[in-house]
């Protein structure tokens, strides 16, 4: 299972206000897998195609440090295969003004 663009410490960086695509891929098999994106114990996207599921979100400060879990399940598994990623939402910073004394 792979989450696109994740770092070694399982995080994804995004600037607040930007659109982020969470992309999770698995090697498709038989029986066919059911893919889900989950956050806060809620399934926010289910489905996918050819072993890939994508969830788009407009990153906000409330998403900072939020955990998103990709889950893959099929009839042959007793428990789903999961991988999680944490969002690091960078704020929109203004350039500090140079004060002249």
Helices and strands in order, then pairings?
Elements: E1 2-3, E2 11-15, E3 19-25, E4 34-39, E5 42-47, E6 52-58, E7 67-73, E8 81-90
Parallel strand pairs: 2-8
Antiparallel strand pairs: 1-3, 3-6, 4-5, 4-7, 7-8
How would you describe this protein?
It holds the Pfam family Ig_2. Residues 1-86 form the Ig-like domain. The protein is built from no helices and 8 strands. By secondary structure, it is mostly beta strands. It has one domain (2-89): Immunoglobulins (Immunoglobulin-like, Sandwich), CATH 2.60.40. A 5-stranded mixed sheet has the order 2-8-7-4-5, with no helix packed on it. The chain has a 3-stranded antiparallel sheet with strand order 1-3-6, with no helix packed on it. The mean pLDDT is 88.
Global morphology: elongated
- Looking at CATH, the homologous superfamily is Immunoglobulins
Query: Spans of 5+ residues with little confidence (pLDDT < 50)?
Result: none
> Describe the biggest sheet?
5 strands, mixed
* CATH 2nd-level architecture: Sandwich
Query: What percent of residues are in strands?
Result: over 45%
Q: CA-to-CA gap between the ends?
A: 57 Å
Instruction: Examine the coordinates and then state which fold CATH places here, giving the name of the CATH topology.
Output: Immunoglobulin-like
Series of H and E elements: EEEEEEEE
- What's the CATH class label? Mainly Beta
Strand neighbour order, sheet with most strands: 2-8-7-4-5
When the domains are counted, the total is: 1
Percent of residues in helices comes to under 10%
Instruction: Report Rg.
Output: 17 Å
Number of helices: 0
Question: How many strand elements?
Answer: 8
Secondary structure category: mainly beta
Q: What does the average pLDDT come to?
A: 88
